[in-house]
Specification:
Strand order of the largest sheet: 3-4-5
Number of helices: 9
Helix content: 40-55%
Number of domains: 2
Order of helices and strands: HHHHEEHHHEEEHH
Mean pLDDT: 81
Structural class: mainly alpha
């Protein structure tokens, strides 16, 4: 039999990962154009509708009412690009501009009735991507999510993407509290163990860590998470005590457990 050559070493592992992500991105772009183009929208316009709808649905947990600048920050585009797309959506009767009640000089964006219907359609993930992820074994999905969290955090630190409300930068997150491979971490908000598969990239209830002496710095939280260490020997997984300065009550934790889809 002819000798089979060794695999080419002209690419690093990182380059191969990027090549794989590029293929996934291609499917995303094709799906976005197919979905939004059929309704007379560009992918940027469709994304703006989804963003404004998400903020409107967030209630008290969401950020302040969104204007064009806030939309641009969420999308990591220029204000000019966001303004042009917003103007087109206003002309199409999908968005409405109105004065901010707290600041009459500012303008906030709200959805019209048609806009809400369009936003409901645009917020759906591409079926092909969802099916491909669902077909993966659970043992592969958790490491993939963990890796994506790390990528987003790095790009966030470099100013390439908007700030995300991630578990790994939250005051309620205590990594590696338990000797449990499936759920080694603990969420103080819900009072329950969580695993890498439960990590969130955008949690409306996330509160940044490091803002007071009772919580670790973001760098420290990330360090122990990556290295497989607990924050200290006095966490919920050790002696059943929450760290000082955490305000979540037992009733609030219990009420949030079902919404996060995590059972203790």
């Amino acid at each position: 039999m002819p000798r089979r050559d060794a695999p080419s070493a002209d690419q690093t592992t990182g380059q191969r990962i990027v090549a794989g992500l590029a293929k996934v991105a291609l499917v995303f772009r094709q799906a976005q154009w197919a979905a939004s183009g059929g309704r007379g929208l560009t992918p940027t316009q469709a994304q703006i509708l989804a963003i404004v709808a998400g903020e409107a649905a967030g209630g008290a947990a969401s950020h302040a009412p969104m204007g064009v600048k806030a939309v641009a920050e969420r999308m990591a585009v220029t204000v000019a690009t966001a303004s042009e797309a917003v103007g087109a959506l206003v002309d199409k009767g999908l968005l409405r501009k109105k004065a901010d009640e707290s600041d009459g000089r500012a303008v906030v964006l709200t959805l019209t009735a048609r806009g809400r219907r369009e936003a409901a359609n645009t917020s759906e993930w591409p079926v092909a991507i969802v099916a491909a992820v669902d077909a993966m074994p659970e043992s592969e999905r958790a490491p993939l999510l963990r890796g994506l969290v790390g990528m987003v955090r790095t790009m966030q630190e470099r100013g390439l993407v908007p700030t995300s409300r991630m578990c790994v930068e939250c005051r309620y997150f205590r990594p590696n509290e338990y000797c449990n491979e499936a759920r080694p971490h603990h969420c103080l908000l819900i009072g329950a163990p969580i695993g890498d598969a439960d990590l969130r990239l955008d949690c409306a209830e996330m509160e940044p860590t490091g803002k007071d002496a009772g919580t670790p710095t973001p760098a420290r939280l990330w360090e122990v998470f990556v290295n497989g260490q607990p924050l200290d020997q006095h966490g919920p997984g050790r002696e059943g005590r929450a760290r000082p300065g955490v305000r979540a009550s037992h009733s609030r934790r219990a009420g949030r457990a079902s919404s996060k889809g995590v059972s203790s």
